[in-house]
Specification:
73% of the residues lie in helices and 0% in strands. It has 194 residues and is mainly alpha-helical.
């Protein structure tokens, strides 16, 4: 196995890992009583930043984590997610440095390197955006039906945040169904191309 083939095999696991990391973190910040899986935090970020007049900013970061993490987790719009996660991580890094959280900048720095790896892996798709010629040839265009199913999955996850205030088990179920829809959009696309 060559180094290049090893790197190629790491693209999807890296995207899913970053997706779970940011999606889970954002959902945990927004869910009622923070009852959603998330391994990075802090879930109380909004409470910590509100005295500085930055409560809305913390909520914006949480929703950004949900949407960008979802792009990376469900893989359909991985390239877009990998571009968007860079400024998100930079914002998180600045907050952790500004509040002098020990150790956290190093963890965030590792996540930043993983995100840069995803950017590097999609460089041929991204070169034309900065005026560099590329031999990248896009696949067939995606079907609108598959895109709508993916969007429905994202919408269900955003709705589950509000549902969590009333019924936590139902909210988790809606979230899981939404993730299933978004992953399932790939199969709808394969069926429509046959």
């Amino acid at each position: 196995m060559t180094f290049q083939s090893l790197l190629k095999k790491l693209i999807i696991p890296t995207s899913i890992f970053l997706g779970i990391t940011f999606f889970g973190s954002g959902m945990a910040k927004l869910y009622f009583e923070h009852k959603y899986f998330g391994w990075i935090g802090p879930v109380w970020l909004e409470d910590k930043l509100t005295p500085y007049g930055l409560g809305l900013y913390a909520r914006f970061i949480a929703y950004s984590q949900v949407i960008i993490g979802y792009l990376l987790l469900t893989l359909r719009f991985r390239t877009l997610g990998s571009v968007m996660v860079i400024p998100l991580i930079a914002n998180i890094l600045m907050v952790t440095i500004s509040l002098q959280w020990q150790g956290t900048p190093f963890v965030v720095g590792i996540l930043l390197m993983m995100a840069l790896f995803l950017i590097y892996s999609d460089r041929k798709k991204l070169f034309p955006l900065i005026g560099i010629a590329s031999d990248y040839q896009p696949n067939d265009p995606w079907s609108w039906k598959a895109n709508l199913i993916w969007i429905l999955g994202l919408f269900l996850n955003l709705a589950s945040i509000q549902i969590s205030s009333f019924n936590l088990l139902f909210a988790w179920s809606v979230s899981i169904i939404g993730i299933g829809f978004s992953f399932g959009s790939h199969f709808v696309e394969k069926d429509s191309s046959n």
